[in-house]
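dumping this here so i dont lose it
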């Protein structure tokens, strides 16, 4: 699965340049031209990395950094024409992971993004491979397999599965899941969570009506159950 990259840039020429650069290097690129669209795209796509310009027409980039980092550890690389050292320090102190000034060198920018991707992956998934019975998740490649056969998950389904896998055996409340995956807790998002959980179960469970992996705790939340091959054969 390609690395999902969200580029937040209001200059069309720079936006086009960045899109072409990263698509040529096998990234899946999503674009936003202002702060409102950036937050919408972030919650919809849940990208692996964000490249962020500070001078947006409707809000400061620093505000976006704070909003994203409040709920996620997604790496953010600031790409800005502002060269003031104090500006860099403020961004880094508020959660930005790197800061590159314009004009930029394309190869250096690609290298910085690769470094962020490696650090984030190693930090979040030190073992890289999660195995639970016949379920295998490769956190590096973002692939999921059941009984050795790779299955396709949507970005939201994958985020849900990873979240549950990271807390195997624990009951995660609806509020916790909504906050972690959607970035906010709204009652109106609960039906969407249930729909995504239903489609996820259809893809990983032998019998979705009698699930082995994801248990529902009515009015509370969901739990990833620890499995072994013997337990599934009985």
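and the seq i came up w/
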């Amino acid at each position: 699965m390609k690395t999902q990259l969200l580029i937040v840039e209001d200059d069309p020429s720079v936006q086009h340049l960045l899109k072409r650069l990263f698509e040529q290097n096998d990234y899946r690129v999503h674009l936003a031209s202002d702060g409102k669209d950036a937050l919408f795209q972030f919650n919809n796509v849940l990208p692996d990395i964000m490249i962020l310009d500070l001078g947006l027409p409707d809000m400061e980039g620093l505000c976006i950094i704070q909003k994203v980092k409040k709920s996620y550890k997604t790496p953010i690389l600031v790409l800005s024409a502002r060269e003031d050292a104090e500006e860099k320090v403020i961004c880094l102190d508020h959660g930005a992971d790197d800061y590159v000034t314009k004009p930029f060198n394309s190869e250096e920018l690609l290298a910085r993004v690769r470094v962020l991707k490696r650090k984030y992956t190693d930090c979040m998934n030190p073992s890289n491979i999660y195995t639970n019975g016949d379920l295998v998740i490769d956190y590096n490649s973002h692939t999921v397999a059941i009984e050795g056969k790779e299955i396709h998950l949507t970005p939201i389904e994958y985020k849900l599965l990873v979240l549950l896998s990271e807390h195997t055996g624990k009951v995660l409340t609806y509020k916790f899941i909504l906050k972690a995956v959607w970035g906010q807790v709204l009652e109106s998002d609960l039906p969407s969570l249930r729909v995504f959980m239903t489609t996820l179960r259809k893809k990983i469970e032998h019998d979705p009506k009698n699930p082995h992996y994801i248990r529902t705790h009515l009015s509370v939340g969901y739990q990833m159950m620890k499995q072994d091959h013997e337990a599934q054969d009985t």
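The chain has a mean pLDDT of 88.
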